[in-house]
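User: Hi! I'm a student and our assignment asks us to look at how structure tokens line up with a sequence. Could you show me two examples?

Assistant: Happy to help. In each example below, the sequence comes first and the structure tokens follow. Example one:
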Amino acid sequence: MIPVVASAEPRPIDPLAPGRPAYVDDLVRVVRTDGELPRRTLRTVRTEHFDISHEGGRVAIAHRVPLEEVHAGLAELLSREIFGPGWLRGADVFERIMTGIVLTSADDPLSAWEHFYRTSLRTIEAATDLADSPSAGMHGAVAGYAPVYARAEEVLVGDSVVELGSCFGFFSLRQAGTREVTAIDVSAGSIRLLEQVSAQLGTPVEALTADAAHVPLPDGCADTVVALHLLEHLEPQHGWRVVTEAVRLARRRVVIAVPYEDEPEELWGHVRTLTREDLAAYGLRTGLPFAVEEHHGGWLVLDLA
């Protein structure tokens, strides 16, 4: 089963759209079902947490995800029950369904996301030492990227950080209590969400919508610039421009992390794989002192001072 995609370009996700009684956009309709399971129709696929069907040209998802599980681990759940088995495919549909699950978890969109963020940050904190977890190598699993955040924090220098490709902004939020933080992402919706939720959490993050290769900030604006699991989403030349932009923005250090994969993972929006040799080549090309390491993937650390 694959989604029916309209001929017109679907509108971008609005992360603050209403979610009750249902979250509806150009590609998906998501509802929350509590209590007894709805009757399953002939063309419905049922998993432990989801009923999957088509409705009026959209993918229709009826879910029963417990509120305590509405956090960053939704990515792993969706992969395991829907996208891994092949019932649906496509990173855009994946992101829309995940958004719909969050927005149907509370009457107010901002309250729904505040719950998602608070629960995610607690879950990430609890998972930072789960190096031996069965999910530790899975890119979308909390146990897969929590140790990445922890390692990045170990190599930060100085009192200011710019995060390129911040996505939900979990890493930036973890730093906001102790450092001056700026989060950069190409998604205007993600940045708007991060601005509003970070204020709700009491740890406001400065957030800018920009391509990580063209950031409207001055040279040397932060002690450390990080790009965590970003380059695999970009074609090689675009990725190199991000590296040079990170060097421009940093006063003291650039920290880059990538997953090591045999094939690019379509579900997470990856378009290429990177190796230790690729990271070393980037380091040599910058002309700066650098180190390449391995910890839940590959790391390139560039020192400017």
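Example two works the same way, sequence first and then tokens:
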Amino acid sequence: MAETDQERTEDPTERRKQQAREKGQVARSKEMGTAFVLVSAAIAFMWFGDWLYEGARNVFQTMFTIDRQQAFDTTKIYEAFGIAFGFIMWPVLIIFAFVLVATFFGNSWLGGISFSTKAMAPKFSRMNPLNGFKRMFGIQALVELVKAIAKFSVVAVSAYFLLKWQFVDILQMSMGQMPNMIGNALDILLWMFLLLCCSIFLIVVIDAPFQLWKHNKDLRMTKQEVKDEHKDTEGSPEVKGRIRRLQMEMANRRMMQEVPKADVVVTNPTHYAVALKYEDGGSQAPVLLAKGTDETAAKIREIALEYDIPLVQSPALARSVYHTTELEKEIPQGLFVAVAQILAYVYQLRLFKQGQAKRPKKPDSESPIPEDLRY
């Protein structure tokens, strides 16, 4: 059982993934980055190649038309270099920026953008020769060897078929005339380069899911680690239980402080007790100030007696109010008639104590309560 608990069989939690990302541990595919760099370079040369060609032609034209007198004049030489640099600068910068954006996108597509100072910190374990030998002859090294052989095989086979496809056109270039022959050769070369680079995506299709699987596998957790993390994030059951008890005690204390404000306490008579208040002349329905069962109900009755609040026995009404009404909320409309009878009795009892009315008759303990509100 202990061995089973130590096996990393559980999928990583979100917190484990976030901690790994903070350490710079994210899924990466070097093959994807390489493929994006090569393909973007091929596309950049196809789009901006004419501009680069014109710039290079102007550079050669400028540099090869310098006469002997200008060649020995440093001022003229610097001017010529400045003009040549102006011809070639913008196409080179555009191509470089295009490839740079594609490189960033290709390397961040899998795993997203991650910047971690922890990953930049030196690790002395990497300087251990034994760990180096393990990396050289481990499973990861074997996987990289297989990938290298696969890349070589895919590129070699793709190059063979591309050469076979363009073999006739390549032979016909020998019968062409300058400078058209150079343009045709460049077109064939660029298309072959682009298709050859795209062939690397065959490796990416396999490598990217593998890297995701390996990253998830490396982050797997034992059952005990999952339990410990749950305790750290959610708290131990003992602490949570204690917090709940303290919260209930505080809520009960606040609730008991509201009992003296009640107009009447309806009881079961012993198991349930609810304290109700109604603002005379107000538009609101009676409000539940306190409720409880057993010990809490006894405490409510004790406070009611202390503050001379009438206690009225109505088991069905007490249970219905307890189960259907939240604290400081109005009672349901279906209980209005039953509660109105209780309040009318309380008001008449108050007048009787003041000597202004006869002793009222106690309301029927079986109050008129709808079936859907009975408990």
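Here is something you could point out in your write-up. Confidence is low (pLDDT under 50) at residues 1-5.
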